[in-house]
Structure formats: structure tokens, C-alpha cells
Amino acid sequence: xxxxxxxxxxxxxxxxxxxxxxxxxxxxxxxxxxxxxxxxxxxxxxxxxxxxxxxxxxxxxxxxxxxxxxxxxxxxxxxxxxxxxxxxxxxxxxxxxxxxxxxxxxxxxxxxxxxxxxxxxxxxxxxxxxxxxxxxxxxxxxx
Length: 143
Description:
Blueprint: H1 3-16, E1 29-34, E2 41-49, E3 52-61, H2 64-77, H3 82-97, H4 111-114, H5 123-142
Antiparallel strand pairs: 1-2, 2-3
Helix pairs in contact: 1-2, 2-5, 3-5
């Protein structure tokens, strides 16, 4: 199997069988985001213990790339602090705008998405879950 085939298979698995799908009852933080360009909608709910993300659920109504990104993100951020999760999101964002194929170790799980960065119209789909996370972090900083 070729690398693009492996990446496609990983993304399809996450899109078809998303991890941490749903909504938490009484979440500590919640954010809803929308991509007006393609109509994707996503709601992120987080359960916290102090600054640690204990649980994360996403509800996605959108394309397979948006769903896969939310699924992978949910796996990455559980048991991280909000600050660590936000830093991971920023590194992902930076990787999407670089011309290099190098991927920092802390976002290796996101490599299948980063491989799609040449499809500029899909970047917002990849980032939507991370935008919701950033909104949750912003809400937390206001309290």
C-alpha cells in the first residue's frame, strides 16, 4: 500500500467510525462553530478536572474530512491540559501553512490531514474542530 492510500484509509475510518462522537451532559466548556463555505457544523463539549480535559465529545454535521479531523482531535486532547491542547492546535495550524512535508512529533497523528493541505478549499474543514477548541480555551480564560 502506498502512503496516500494509508492516509486515506485512516481518514475514512475516522469519518465512518468517529471517536468520541456525541455530546456531554453538563460540560464544563462548549463551543459551536460553522464553516459557511461548505456548511459544516460542529459542536464540541469538554469535561474538565482543573485544567485537564477528562472527556471530549464532538457532534459533526459535515464532510468526511471535518468528521475525521474532529475524531482525531478528540483522541489527541483527552488527558491534556487546555493549554497543551491549544498549543497542539496552533502547531497543526502552522503545519497547514508551511511548504514543508515535515510534521512535528506532537502532531504526528494529524499527518493524514496535513497531507491534504494542498487542497486549499479543505483546510477550513480540517481546522473546524480546532477552531471550536480555541473557542473553549477562550471561554475558559474569561472565567
